[in-house]
Amino acid sequence: MYTAFNLVGTSLWLPLWISFSLLFLGVSGFDSIPQCVKLVDSESVALQSEGDIVIGGFFPLHYVAPKPQHSYFSKPQPMPCSGFDHRAFRWMMTMVFAVEEINRDSRLLPGVKLGYRIMDSCDHVHTSMQALFSLISYSNTVTTQSAQSDILPSCLAGSPVSYFATCTCLTDKHTYPSFLRTVPSDLFQVKGLVQLVTFLGWLWVGTIGTTDDYSHYGIQAFSSQFRQQGGCVAFHLTIPKSPTAAEIQEMADRLQSSTTQVVVVFATEGQLLDLLLELAQRNVTGIQWVASEAWVTASLLTSPRFHSLLEGTLGFAFPGVRIPGMEFVNMFWEELFGYSQNNSGSLPVCTGSEDLSNTESSYTDVSQARISYNVYKAVYAIAHALHTLLNCDSAELNMGMCEKHKSFTSRQHVFTLCVPEGSTECTKCPEFYWSDKDKVNCIAGIEEFLSFYDTMGIVLVVLTLLGVVLTTIITTVFHRFRSTPIVKANNSEISFLLLLSLKLCFLCSLLFIGQPSVWTCRLRQAAFGISFVLCLSCLLVKTIVVLLAFQANIPELPVFLCCPQVCLCAGWLLAAPPFPFKNPTYQIVVECKEPWPPGFYLVLGYIGLLAFLCLLLAFLGRKLPDAFNEAKLITFSMLIFWAVWISFIPAYVSSPGKFTVAVEIFAILASSFGLLLCIFVPKCYIILLRPERNIKKGMTGKYPR
C-alpha cells in the first residue's frame, strides 16, 4: 500500500510512512540534506496549513501515476496523476479534521498549534518517493529557519505511525524498530481468509497480486497457510506496475481459461482497475472473488459496469465507526459535478449553485469510517505522544503551556505512544510458544516431561533399581535353596515365574521415564499390562494350589490367563497406538496421547479382575491348617495392591502434566514392592535366619518350639 503518514516540525521530524519508504526508517540524521538539489520546481502538495509542529501525510488521491520520463539531459517535467479517488480524499480530510479538532482542544497540546502538509502519493512508488523527498526538503528548510529563530534544530528520524500499512513485512522490530501502525497486520487477515475459503469448501483457488510487498507477503502467507489446510493454488497472476494492454488481455485470458472459479486478490482498486475493466468488457461472470481489505470496500468498483463481474465478492473490512462532528468541506466539484472552479481546462466554470449535500459518493459517506478512523487514531496517537514529550502536563513549570521548543529523538517518541518497546500490536503466539516477561516477543516454550535427570525421576529410578536388585537377591536365595521344603512348597516353578514377573513389573516403570518417543509410548502400557497380569496369574495359581490342598499342578494356567491381555494389547497397539504429543494445557508437557482411552481402562480392568479373584480365593483359604499356608500372605499382599490402585485412580485423573506419569510409576512400584515383600520376605527370613523351620516337620507345624 503506497500510503503514508508523516510528522514534520520546527523542532522535530517524525516521518509516518509505510512500505515504500521503509528504507529511511531508523535514520537518526541526514548531514547531506543541504547538498541535495531539487530537479522539479512544482510539488504534489495537496493541502497544507502552517503550525508550530507540522504533520505530513501521504494519501493516494489519484490511482493512476504517469511513467517517469528521465532523459538526464533536461529537468524532468511534472506529470499530473489521473483517476481521482474519493475514498482517499476522505482519508485526507479526516487528517485535516483531526488536526483542527486537536487545535480546538485546550486540554491537548496547550499553546502548540498543529499544522499539516499533505502530499499526493498517486498510489505508486516513484511518485511517493518524490513526495517523500519533497517533505524531507521542507523539513530541512524549516529546521534551518528554526535554528535562526532560537529554536533547537532537529534531525530527520524515522518513527512512522501508519494508518493503512498492513504488510507483515513491517512486523520485524529489528529491521523497523520505530515503525508503528493503527491497523492490524495481514497476519490476522490471512488467517481469516484461509478459514473463510476452507470453511466454504473452496480448496481449489487462484490468486492475483501485484509487485509490491503488501501483495507479495500477503499472497505468500495465504498460499502457505492454505496448503497446510489441504488447499491447492491453481494459478497466480502478477499485475505489473504499469501493465500494457497485451499484458491485461493475457491475464484476462488466463482467468477465463482456468478451471477454478474462486480467486483471492491482494491489491488496491487502482491496480485492479484495468484488469476488471477488461473482464467487464468481455462480460465475464461466475468468478467468486475473495478480496483483501485494500479493495473490498472500494466504492470505485461499485459502479454498475462491475455489478455482474463482482457481485458476491467476499472479504474482511476494517470495523466501521462514526466520528462525531466529522463533516467535510466541498473541495472537489470538478470530479463530482464536471465543472471547473476557474477558467483553466476544458470544463465549464462552476455556477455556484452546486449542492454537495444532494450527492452521494464515498467522500460524503462518513457514517461508517473504516480506514478514516485509522487516520484519525494515528493523528491522535501523535498528539498524545507530543503532549507527553513536551511536558504539557507540568502546568506549574510551564504556566499551563507545552515546552514547544524542546527537542527529542524518534525512540523517545515511540515509549510515549503507550506501546512496549519492540511491539506495536498484540498477536497470539504460535502453538508451543510463550510471550517473554515483557510481553513483547514470542519465545519457544520449554518442553517438560519426567526426565531421568529430574529429582523425581532420579528417585523413581533408584526405587526401580532397588526393586530389581531385591528381586534378583531373592531369586538367587530361592535358587540356592531350591531343594528345601519351603521353596518346593506351593509349586517352586510358579514361584520362580512370579519372581520373573515382579522383575518385569519393576523394569516396565523405566519406560515411563524420559522423553516419550513412538516406541516407548507403544510399549509402556503393554509392558505394564502384561507384566502385572503374569504376576497376578501366578498368584492366582498359588491360591488355587492352596485351596486344593497342594493336589494341583497347573503351570500352564498363568500363560493361559495372560493370553486375553496379550490379545487386547496387540489389538490396541495395531488399531490405535499411543503416540508422543505436546500438551500445552500445563506449560508444554510432552506425553503419550492415547487416541483410544478405553484401551488403557480395559487393560487396567483385566488386571483388576485377576486381583479380585486372587483376593477372594486367598481370603477363603486363609484359615486352612498349614504352617506355610501362602493364602494369608497373598490376602495381605492383595489388600495392599487394591489400596494402591484404588487411590491411584483419583490421583491419576487430578495430577497435572508430568505428575500424571509419576503417579502411575508410584502405583507400579508400590504394588510391586507390596507383592515382593509380603510373599517372599517371610520365606527368606526362614531360609536364612530360621533354617530349623525349613524342614518337613516344620511344614506340618510339628517342629520344636
UniProtKB/TrEMBL annotation:
Keywords: Cell membrane, G-protein coupled receptor, Glycoprotein, Membrane, Receptor, Signal, Transducer, Transmembrane, Transmembrane helix. The chain crosses the membrane at residues 456-478, 494-514, 526-550, 557-579, 599-621, 633-653, 665-689. GO terms for molecular function: G protein-coupled receptor activity. This is Olfactory receptor C family, u1. Coiled coil: none annotated. GO terms for cellular component: plasma membrane. It is a multi-pass membrane protein. It holds the Pfam family 7tm_3. It is found in: Cell membrane. The keyword Lipid metabolism does not apply. It comes from Lates calcarifer. Residues 1-29 form the signal peptide. Residues 456-703 form the G-protein coupled receptors family 3 profile domain. Gene3D superfamilies: 3.40.50.2300.
